[in-house]
């Protein structure tokens, strides 16, 4: 998967592209459908103001949120896509700095650990996973997130479920 990463203010200087690459590498271990080398994803580290505007325009929710995902492929098309061919845009993911930083502080985790969790979460949405469809879907998605994060040394962000 190729990532097109943009880091805007107010995100602090950091190794955000390296963090995103680690997230992708771990995620493709637990969700191999994302390992197609044709996939391209736009990843935007931006402000609450920008995510609020995107959320209002595209999801009709008038508030900021921690991460937004905009899939470009249906899950069936993603699964059927051959590995040979031109790049294919899987979708866009945007992270809101102020919300991410506030949530990280509330959880007592680093901004980096929370951001990598949200990158994994957002990429799973691009692959067609959706925790809002019901409890079974939420458990499945959280298990994949937890397993991917464990591969890069990030603690279970949910902490209250057993995914073994």
UniProtKB/TrEMBL annotation:
<keyword id="KW-0963">Cytoplasm</keyword>
<comment type="similarity">
    <text>Belongs to the endoribonuclease YbeY family.</text>
</comment>
<comment type="function">
    <text>Single strand-specific metallo-endoribonuclease involved in late-stage 70S ribosome quality control and in maturation of the 3' terminus of the 16S rRNA.</text>
</comment>
<protein>
    <recommendedName>
        <fullName>Endoribonuclease YbeY</fullName>
        <ecNumber>3.1.-.-</ecNumber>
    </recommendedName>
</protein>
<keyword id="KW-0690">Ribosome biogenesis</keyword>
<keyword id="KW-0255">Endonuclease</keyword>
<keyword id="KW-0698">rRNA processing</keyword>
<dbReference type="GO" id="GO:0004222">
    <property type="term" value="F:metalloendopeptidase activity"/>
</dbReference>
<dbReference type="InterPro" id="IPR020549">
    <property type="entry name" value="YbeY_CS"/>
</dbReference>
<dbReference type="GO" id="GO:0005737">
    <property type="term" value="C:cytoplasm"/>
</dbReference>
<dbReference type="GO" id="GO:0004521">
    <property type="term" value="F:RNA endonuclease activity"/>
</dbReference>
<keyword id="KW-0378">Hydrolase</keyword>
<dbReference type="GO" id="GO:0008270">
    <property type="term" value="F:zinc ion binding"/>
</dbReference>
<feature type="binding site">
    <location>
        <position position="121"/>
    </location>
    <ligand>
        <name>Zn(2+)</name>
    </ligand>
</feature>
<dbReference type="GO" id="GO:0006364">
    <property type="term" value="P:rRNA processing"/>
</dbReference>
<dbReference type="InterPro" id="IPR023091">
    <property type="entry name" value="MetalPrtase_cat_dom_sf_prd"/>
</dbReference>
<keyword id="KW-0862">Zinc</keyword>
<keyword id="KW-0540">Nuclease</keyword>
<dbReference type="InterPro" id="IPR002036">
    <property type="entry name" value="YbeY"/>
</dbReference>
<feature type="binding site">
    <location>
        <position position="131"/>
    </location>
    <ligand>
        <name>Zn(2+)</name>
    </ligand>
</feature>
<dbReference type="Pfam" id="PF02130">
    <property type="entry name" value="YbeY"/>
</dbReference>
<feature type="binding site">
    <location>
        <position position="125"/>
    </location>
    <ligand>
        <name>Zn(2+)</name>
    </ligand>
</feature>
<keyword id="KW-0479">Metal-binding</keyword>
